[in-house]
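Lecture 7 notes: from sequence to structure.
We start with the chain below.
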Amino acid sequence: MIKSLYSLAVMVSDGKKATKWYTEKLGFKVYENKGHWVTVGPKGSKFYLHLCQANRKYGTKLEPGNSGVAMVVDDLDKTYAQLSAKGVKFSQKPIDQGWGKYASFKDPDRNEFYLYE
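Predicted structure tokens for the same chain:
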């Protein structure tokens, strides 16, 4: 089952400027910086802000209902099976993208959430 929250996507107009602002103004640390995937947070944090720059190259845009909330699970396939059995509707079945394995589901109001292993 779900064991923790991982990240929250924050739409930004310029990823580099946003990274600079969060690090210089708030003192956040950059945890990952892989092109579109930039995460920042307080030093020692295990919950991050994903500075999500809208960019056609990466297919990112502000999407109604996309919460950007990511949750961590120990076993994605097992959690997917458990939640599916409870009637949770998945918009993305578990998939391994090479950088990690994830799935996404929607709540009754069509807000989308992500599960990462």
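Points to note: The first strand starts at residue 2 and ends at 12. The chain has a mean pLDDT of 85.
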